[in-house]
């Protein structure tokens, strides 16, 4: 049941990230998408606290009661109140009245003053996934998948192997110590994901993602020297979470900008999918390395992989021409006005 719930929520993620990007100014799009993504781990954290209370107060069955009723209630509210993407409505061309009503709701009277609703991208032909590699987007798509893969994978390595590193260092009460260290890691990740978009808006994607990966790699190495005490390990994992959270969430913010409306959810979804792949592959590599040496060597290799991925970030900046997310992006389709 838990696996099914997590899977369903992750399937929805690209769609709500794509939708929110339609209803914020382009100069704020990166910040809005990153902040919304940060709500995902926030919900997991708060859900864990709520589950602990529900089990103690009402028994384990209450988790499933609350976990079933609340999503249905939220889904009903969203179905009734959440507006459709304006670009999607305009592309369909048979929902002008709905689009006008949404505009009037957002800016009363605007649609009746001669304001013209414009389409910023045309519906591409063929399979949406294929469009990620069409019209000059192939290089940008492949390069963007690298920070997705490495940032998500690096975060997973720290979560999975912090208890083992603490145990190997002879830290007492390793179960509680591991939970505490991972708790600080989650807090750092939450903060990093929340501020990533704003940093990209201000400093550009290359500097933000590159710095996140570089400092995250350094903190990953420091974790190997700090597992002797819980305080140092907690500090190191929090910093890893912060900076790799910036890189991972920043990748999502960039995906929300470089793809046109019709394939934005597909682009975000495939990027997150590459990140999930990193969460499988990098822990497997780390596990193999850990069986053949000490934890410090394992962390050094993971850190080296993170630093190597900075090359892809720099090339991504050159490929897209992105210096700020507020301006036009070279890899999107040309703007065309609606007739």
Give a verbal description of the structure.
This protein is 77% helix and 0% strand. The chain is an all-alpha fold and 339 residues long. Helix 9 packs antiparallel against helix 10 and helix 9 (205-226) packs antiparallel against helix 13. The radius of gyration is 22 Å and the shape is globular. Mean pLDDT is 77; it is low at 1-5 and 325-339.
Task: Give the topology.
Elements (H helix, E strand, L loop, with lengths): L1 H21 L6 H30 L2 H21 L4 H7 L3 H11 L21 H4 L6 H31 L5 H30 L1 H22 L3 H29 L2 H30 L4 H14 L1 H11 L19
Helix pairs in contact: 1-2, 1-11, 2-8, 2-10, 7-8, 7-9, 7-10, 7-11, 7-12, 7-13, 8-9, 8-10, 9-10, 9-12, 9-13, 10-11, 11-12
Key terms:
339 residues, mainly alpha, Growth Hormone, Chain: A, 13 helices, globular
Summary?
With 339 residues, this protein is mainly α.
Low-confidence stretches: 1-5, 325-339
Assembly classification: single chain
Chain-averaged pLDDT: 77
Tally the beta strands: 0
Largest sheet: none
Radius of gyration: 22 Å
CATH class label of the largest domain = Mainly Alpha
User: What is the molecular shape?
Assistant: globular
CATH superfamily (homologous) name of the largest domain: MFS general substrate transporter like domains
